[in-house]
Amino acid sequence: MSTCAVCDQPTKNKCSNCNQSFYCCAGHQKQHWKTHKINCRPFKVEYSDQLGRYLVATRSIKPFEIILKEAPLICTPSQVTNPVCLGCLNGIEPSDYVECDKCGWPLCGDECKGKADHQAECQFTVKRGSKVSVKEFTNPHPLYQCMGTVRCLLLAKSDPEKWKMLLKLESLEKQRRGSMQWKADLESIGKFIPRFFKTTEFNEDLIMKTIGILQINGHEVPVTDPPHVAVFSNASFLEHSCIPNLAKSFSKEGNLILWAPKAIKKNTHLSICYSDAVWGTAERQQHLMHTKLFKCVCERCLDITECGTNYDAFKCTTSNCDGVILPSSLKEWNSAWSCSTCGAQADISFIKSILEKAGKDLQAMDKTVENCIKYIQHYEKWLTRRHYFICQAKIQLVQLIGTDPKELMVVPEDQLNKKLEYVKELLELYENLAPCEVRMLGTFCFELHSAIAEHTRRVALQTTLSPKNMLEESLLYVEKCIDYLQRECDLFVEGHILKQAKINRDALRMVLVM
Ligand SMILES: C[S@@+](CC[C@H](N)C(=O)[O-])C[C@H]1O[C@@H](n2cnc3c(N)ncnc32)[C@H](O)[C@@H]1O
Fold first, then answer.
1. Which residues of the chain have pLDDT under 50?
2. Which atom of ligand 1 is least distant from the CA of 293?
3. For residues 170 and 216, is the Cβ–Cβ distance under 8 A?
4. Which residues form the MYND-type domain (predicted)?
């Protein structure tokens, strides 16, 4: 039997939030709270040879519950970035910036000169004997490549507690060593720091390990422009899944909020998506291998049909066959693709050439309603209607048709119908395939609610039909939008959508009551 955290008496009573700390009575639980509250979370860290450390739910988690709010251990500029202010991490405006009087690093204004985050690297730069000179602001600047690593290394003296926590994180140094990226990092950071800062304070091995920690655990934080990189202590233990169960939001201050869009059962692994859930399997796998050095074997990656959606599939061109063409097995992404219905084999070089062209065309395309429609019509000759390239064009399209309520009121009928059809399709698809992409799902719900409301307005103008059912449907989606976007702050477009959604919800409720 477990024992009370205060007096060691055997007891079965445990803290109902984390299920991990035991108490013989309410008094001892209250007494222990000050110590316990730091660790009172509904998950624990476990270990496996395949995953390393990972997090497991210690109790069932309710929909929309926050499981962790965490401030960063460290915030740094991205490894590849145009010059940013080392005080606030926002981009430097070439016509409006100041130089730090002591070290010369460009800062966005006097207010940032005194910011605590800049102090350690300021002193470190001063020690090199001459000021830094940054004069080119419109391209990625090589000097900034090392600044994330420098910031981490300087924690050893400026904040030893945080440095200790950082060093506990995975660097995958052994796996990284010798790779192309590792060799490039060795030149541009590992050898550069001692030379540029004229220091012997950090040896090459420690520098390379620190680079690994940043690359394996860094999160892109979009609260600055451009986004910066932050490392979080507890959240670093979260494993990846291409169908994760946790959504990631950020507060204005850049704190991480991890929450569950759907219920999670006790003992389930907790996961986030390290990659882009909108990409197809081959792209996600390649990205994960390149950046985080592992092969994903989540249920989405192991299923060639991507949970029955045929997200990577080509259409079968055999006459009268409505089957889809996919790799014959997971090992055959780059070799044998065939039709699941008639068995026809596809030429892999043809598949690759269409995918390459579809990807390039999508990227280069001027994003207008007409171009998106043309793109979809053209590539639907070969790709299924839920292929990831077709879906990416549909995502663009639904956001371009009637971007605000006034525009939506004058959108031609066929475009409004297209918007309604595609948003419904996309919402259904991604609720299945990417259930934690809350910003995208919330935006779809908003688009759908406004398209339904506009359709209702047009129906009411033309007929005597009561639009009550349609208004109820519009209300349902705006409420769903609020659920998905509830943690978004108004630094982001989605935070503004959330505000508008609340106004629209209240108006719709009022209309429905009348
Ligand atoms: C941010 S760390 C996660 C915590 C790490 N497991 C640890 O022990 O510190 C990311 C690394 O964990 C491992 N990892 C995370 N998710 C994984 C998964 N789904 N399959 C295999 N390895 C995974 C990979 O080595 C990856 O580079």
1. none
2. 27
3. yes
4. 4-40
